[in-house]
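Quiz preparation item.
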């Protein structure tokens, strides 16, 4: 559709307004802009999908990730003001990257005309969103611990550590399902469940092993909630560099098609 990029520009603009309103303490205005931004982002995603259906829209992850994070964190946004500011900051950051560094839109290939290709893409987006949300929770708890140390007050981090791990578990489960769907898609399209010379496949498998180790490190006696927070943040950084960065293009000026 002609106005598909402009719809995402609107979504990014509304995300920024919600972030500014959150910083200024205007919670109702913040939520209004945020929900409107999610609506525009969802409409943009639907338009991008309709342009290529039943094929898979290639390299569109940066446009879908802010939407997934926003939908999954709606409960936190409406209940926890402190954490919502960090989530708004993350969503704005990712949306602006998609605006100014839009990846190339390659024509989908015929092998993507299967439900497994779409499951591979969407489940992967959900997994990345869970990992980013876990990093936000982990970073916030580290900040609370740092501030509590100044006043000699020890915070109870057991519950928050479980929350961070829960997001990692959901992300790991979605990532695993995404990989299985990708293997079936690969087998149906190319006759092999794994294409070993594909760098994106190798990176995806590497991140799966990272979070698999993360979920088993609690077996060590030295594993503490603080260590878990650091690893959650590091995992999000690795996903950003190895999985998100590869879909970014060169810096581009905004191109409003209706002007």
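Solution:
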């Amino acid at each position: 559709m002609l106005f598909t990029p402009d719809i995402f520009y609107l979504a990014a603009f509304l995300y920024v307004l919600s972030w500014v309103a959150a910083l200024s303490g205007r919670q109702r205005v913040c939520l209004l802009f945020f929900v409107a931004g999610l609506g525009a982002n969802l409409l943009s995603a639907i338009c991008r999908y309709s342009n290529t259906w039943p094929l898979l829209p290639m390299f569109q992850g940066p446009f879908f990730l802010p939407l997934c994070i926003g939908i999954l964190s709606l409960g936190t946004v409406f209940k926890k003001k402190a954490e919502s500011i960090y989530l708004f900051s993350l969503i704005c950051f990712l949306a602006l990257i998609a605006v100014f560094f839009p990846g190339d839109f390659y024509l989908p290939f015929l092998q993507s005309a299967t439900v497994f290709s779409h499951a591979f893409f969407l489940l992967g987006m959900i997994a990345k969103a869970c990992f980013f949300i876990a990093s936000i929770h982990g970073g916030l708890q580290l900040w609370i611990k740092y501030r509590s140390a100044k006043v000699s007050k020890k915070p109870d981090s057991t519950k928050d550590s479980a929350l961070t791990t829960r997001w990692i578990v959901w992300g790991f489960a979605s990532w695993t399902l995404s990989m299985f769907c990708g293997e079936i898609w690969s087998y149906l399209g190319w006759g092999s469940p794994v294409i070993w010379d594909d760098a994106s496949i190798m990176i995806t498998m590497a991140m799966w092993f990272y979070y698999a180790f993360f979920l088993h490190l609690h077996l060590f006696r030295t594993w503490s909630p603080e260590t878990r927070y650091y690893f959650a943040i590091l995992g999000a950084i690795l996903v950003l560099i190895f999985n998100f960065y590869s879909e970014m293009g060169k810096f581009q000026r905004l191109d409003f098609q209706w002007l």
